[in-house]
Amino acid sequence: MILIVDDTPENLISLKKVFEKHDFEVDTASSGEEALKKVLKNSYVLIILDVQMPGMDGFEVAEAISGYSKAKETAIIFLSAANTEFKFIAKGYSSGGLDYITKPVDMNILLLKVKTFYRIYEQNRKLNEMQKTLLEEIEFRKEAERKKDEFISIASHELKTPLTSVKGYVQLLERSVNKGDTDTVKKHLNKAQSQLEKLNSLIADLLDISKIESGKLKFNKQNFSIDGLLDNVIEVMTQSNPEFKIHKKGSVNCEIYGDEMRIEQVIVNFLTNAIKYSPGTNEIQLTVNVENDELYVAVKDYGIGMLPEQLNHVFDKFYRVEETSQRFQGLGIGLYISAEIIKRHGGRIGVNSTYNEGSEFYFIMPTNLRTEV
User: Which of 348, 373, 371, 366 is nearest to 254 (CA)?
Assistant: First the structure.
């Protein structure tokens, strides 16, 4: 938008009509004081400013505008009928003017200058947008690279931990076998098996990430009983975590169309996280129901919970809550994989959480969606 500042109404009207005729958006001010008030409220691409005005002259207005952070880059063209000497023209440029035109004004010349300025302004605006986009892309790539390096470091550590444990138990097994201590052999075998299951789970997550990235995560969808699935998962989780009581609330009594193994993977991830991030507690609630042909499954714990700013990132790839990453093991990809699984079932995933009170992870999905998502 162009702001025309002139204390002569005839000049304002004529200039406004000419610019509007050429599709420029125009605003006017009849004094320097009025112009400053408008500059504070509105954004202008160009100000055409009369030099001779009562009160504040054009030079004073330009110097005041240059002091406003919002408008200091706004271009100014001075118009002057009386002050045509070089010292006044020089003062116009030093006051922040882009150009200095003497009256009577040749409208064709003024229009040409304004159109040229607008063309340059548009080019600069597009260049600035491109530069901003490029800088954002650079920052995004740098952050992605940082996350990748951090993930590789975490993955190396997480994979090394069970491998080291298995190696230690194998050495202990060798000694126990030589001694003929069957009970100790069984104990070490069970512990080695537990570590191998952790290792297998980590490798499975890494493979799933690779498949998601390449678009090759496959699904074997068919009808299955969600109640049967939940009962089996609760039984297995309770056996491996006998200190926790998992309360199931609700039932479905119908079959769901989907990949049973993948849906189980999501629920196991929810329950595993609920147990992991609930030290000092021993109860978890699992809720299930169907409403309007949509399955709802939620796992609620009473653990450490999360802060509001963490909730927006919890399903991001490689995201780990900073203050818990040293206390709890994990790659930070389980929830990301779960979100992708539910998304591919035409559903949505979410979380409600209160810091120091617990979290409730849930997903909602159609019960009979048979088209590929």
Answer: 366
**Per-residue pLDDT tens for 124-144?**
889 989 999 999 999 988 887
Instruction: Pull the structure tokens for residue 279.
Output: 């030290």
187 Cβ contact partners less than 8 Å away, ≥ 6 residues apart: none
- Cα(66)–Cα(197) distance, integer angstroms: 68
Sheet bearing 245-249, strands edge to edge: 245-249, 283-291, 294-300, 358-366, 348-354
Max mean pLDDT range (93-97, 116-120, 362-366): 362-366
Cβ within 8 Å of residue 39, ≥6 positions away: 3, 47, 65, 68, 70, 71, 74
Q: Are 158 and 329 in contact (CB under 8 A)?
A: yes
Q: Which two tokens stand for residue 92?
A: 């116009």
The neighbour count for residue 133, using CB atoms within 10 Å, is 10
Rounded Cα gap, residues 163 and 330, in angstroms: 15
122: how many CB neighbours lie within 10 A of its CB? Answer: 11
**Strand locations in 37-80 (E):** 46-50, 75-80
CB 155 within 8 A of CB 206: yes
Confidence of residue 65 (pLDDT cuts 50, 70, 90): confident
Rounded CA separation 202/334 (Å): 9
Does the N-terminal peptide bond of residue 104 adopt cis geometry, omega within 30 degrees of 0?
yes
Instruction: Answer for the pair 35, 29: CB distance below 8 angstroms, yes or no.
Output: yes
> Model confidence over 293-341: pLDDT tens digits?
999 999 999 999 998 888 888 898 777 665 444 454 555 688 988 999 9
Q: At what angle do helices 9-21 and 107-179 cross, to 10 degrees?
A: 60
Buried b (16+ CB within 10 A) or exposed e, 288-306: bebeeeebbbbbbbbbbbb
Average pLDDT of the chain, as a whole number: 84
- What pLDDT was estimated at residue 326? 47
